[in-house]
Write a structure and sequence with these properties.
The chain has about 260 residues and is an alpha+beta fold. It has 2 domains: about 5-45; about 55-230, no CATH class. The protein contains 7 helices and 10 strands.
């Protein structure tokens, strides 16, 4: 690739990043036709590609161990994995059947994310980051070669790295959510909630006892939603997810402003 070609590619990525941010904002306020056109242009300017053999092995090897509570009321509907094209990091996008606190959002799923960073020389995972209600929680991994474990909050699926107890403010946020869950949470009288548990069916120790394993690899392999690319929401929207979802942060340090 010549210097001119590299500059042209870099300029295309800058434009795609700007359009992706606009698409996310349009998407999350429900202007889906506008978002669709913008995502299509993002994918034209910076198309994704199938992962190479090394990247596909990383996706399988780094897939986190997912643990939720015994009382979890929604199944993991789908999963997608997106490998960054130039950084050794994989984003695992979870799509749960719904969000207990948001029966009225016109999104028939709950979109959550886990990122796993690894050493490119030997593929060993070194860091896990999770999306927790707008906050990104990061933990370095101290056990070489082990798949990272993440804990998933009942009903609303805020996602926590194992060892979250040592992260400032997390337990307090969980306790607030636990207290709210005993009162029916947000919009407790919504008709859709009639089909769901009216409250968390246990006490605080049960709320933070993450001992039910969820198979992440089964839906990932069933659908084959694996790609290499920068702009995850455009990839998810155009190539993978056939239902509406809430667009979220794409990479831990992307500085996007959306929730």
């Amino acid at each position: 690739m010549t210097a001119q070609d590299r500059e042209r590619a870099t300029a295309g990525q800058r434009v795609a990043r700007y359009l992706e941010q606009l698409a996310i904002l349009e998407h999350n306020v429900g202007r889906l036709n506008a978002a669709r056109a913008l995502y299509a242009e993002v994918n034209r300017l910076d198309p994704s590609r199938p992962p190479d053999d090394r990247q596909r092995r990383a996706v399988d090897r780094l897939a986190p161990v997912v643990l939720t509570t015994a009382a979890e009321c929604f199944a993991l509907r789908d999963c997608a994995a997106i490998h960054h094209p130039s950084v050794p990091i994989v984003a695992y996008h979870f799509f749960w059947e719904d969000d207990w606190n948001y029966p009225d959002d016109d999104e028939p799923c709950d979109h959550e994310i886990v990122w796993v960073r690894y050493r490119p020389d030997d593929g060993v995972p070194v860091e896990v980051a999770t999306y927790f209600h707008g906050r990104i929680l990061t933990r370095e991994l101290s056990t070489p070669g082990a798949r990272p474990a993440v804990h998933v909050q009942w009903g609303t699926h805020g996602t926590l790295p194992a060892g979250w107890e040592g992260i400032a403010g997390v337990e307090a946020a969980l306790r607030r959510d636990f207290d709210a869950s005993l009162r029916g949470g947000r919009v407790p009288d919504h008709p859709r909630k009639r089909r769901w548990p009216p409250r968390f069916p246990g006490m605080w120790p049960d709320y933070v006892r993450f001992d039910r394993a969820v198979d992440l690899l089964r839906p990932l392999r069933r659908e084959g939603w694996i790609a290499t690319g920068r702009f995850a929401n455009a990839i998810l929207h155009d190539l993978f997810v056939p239902y509406n979802f809430h667009a979220k942060r794409e990479w831990p340090d992307d500085r996007f402003v959306n929730l």
